[in-house]
Amino acid sequence: MKAMKLSGILRILMLLLGLACSCAAFQVQPNSYKQPFPSPTSSGRRKQLTALPSQSATLAAPQRPIDSVSFLPFPSVVEVPKVRNYWVEELLGEAFGTFWIVAIGSMASMAATFVNPFMSLPEVAMIWSMAATSAILITSPMSGAHLNPAMTLALAVFRDFEWRKVLPYCTAQIMGSMTGSAVSFGLFRSVIRDYEQTQGLIRSSCLESARVFGEYFDPSSLSALQATGIEALGTFILASIVFAMTHPSRKTQQEDNHINIVPFVVGGTVFSLINTLAPYTQCGMNPARDFGPRIVASLAGWNNVAFQDCWVYIVGPVIGALAGATLIDKVLFKAVDRDQRIRATFTSANVE
Are 313 and 225 contacting, i.e. CB atoms less than 8 angstroms apart? Predict the structure, then answer.
């Protein structure tokens, strides 16, 4: 029964992503059909068609390129919108970025748990941080490298990210993390099975082996509320760094330096936070990175523990990301925005 429910969840996620891609790919540009198509039997309509190119030249230029297609036997050219693939590129970027992070990071966690028990936490944290850094470098030109539903939500609230893209982005991130976790499990499947047989563990209720998929905390040491606070704190710090480093006031400075240091700063922050918070809650800070692998774990046999306290790793990061974005955009950098507006006003007045 649980397997059927999870397969239903997977189908729903794939359906949402497919609908988002379809709607985005065939979205018509504004002003594309200002005039109706002419009738071939009407001379008046022929004149209207002949005048169409000059009329369309006075219209505002569309945001996306359009193709010109000639409808024979008419000598005139009617503009039709070009099929968009920008959303597809963005969603693939988000899916690949989360896939990259989870695949590399999960393999490091599995190696440390099942193969090399002497692998230390800083080594695992370094691999996770390098995966995050490289994923941002790869996907930032494609999608902006959100790679985290909490960050996507915060960007929609405090920056100019479109709300209609929030759900498709989050769906792509979850699917990417699921794929990365599935690849890691496929590579370590036999090793995990041997480990469970050696230790006499029952997979369906074994938290020790489930930890390599999602994040868990020790209920004997922390309450769910405390774990939520720790996750919120970690994501708060991460979001503060991300929003401070990507604030519009830094755009000119980064362009002058010709070096994008944001991925490396974010990667270093991830490394520090994992070393600090992982002993308590495994330091998720990313609902997609946690929830996607939990689905894979449930399908792979960890039925009883796969979704244990999963809400902690959704609510905590969302609260932390919104709080961090509020601190940067509404408190610390508010004076910077005001000064920039004042300078822009004086500059325009001097030019006039």
Answer: no
- CA distances to 42, 91, 215 from 17, rounded to whole Å, are 45, 8, 25
Condensed to tens digits (0 to 9), the pLDDT of residues 159-212 reads: 989 999 999 999 999 999 999 999 999 999 999 999 988 888 888 888 888 999
Question: Does 26 score more than 60 pLDDT?
Answer: no
Cα separation values, 247 from 154, 239, 254, Å: 13, 12, 11
The residue among 88, 101, 89, 64 whose CA lies nearest residue 142 is 89
Of the listed ranges 6-15, 34-43, 168-177, 338-347, the one predicted with least confidence: 34-43
Residues 94, 177: Cα–Cα separation, whole Å: 10
CATH code for position 207: 1.20.1080.10
Residue 185 lies in a domain: yes
Identify the sign of the CA torsion 299, 305, 311, 314: negative
Task: Judge whether residue 104 has pLDDT over 80.
Answer: yes
Amino acid at the residue 123: E
Give the phi and the psi of residue 70 in degrees, each rounded to 5: -90, 125
Q: What are the φ/ψ torsions at residue 79 (nearest 5 degrees)? A: -80, 130
Is the full-model pTM beyond 0.70? yes
Per-residue HEC secondary structure of 192-240 comes to HHHHHHHHCCCHHHCHHHHCCCCCCCCCCCCCHHHHHHHHHHHHHHHHH
Q: 190 in a domain, yes or no?
A: yes
Domain housing 306 = 88-337
Domain count, the chain: 1
Domain-located, residue 73? no
**pLDDT (average), residues 118-126:** 91
Domain assignment present for residue 305? The answer is: yes
Across the chain, where does the E strand assignment appear?
A: 66-70, 77-81
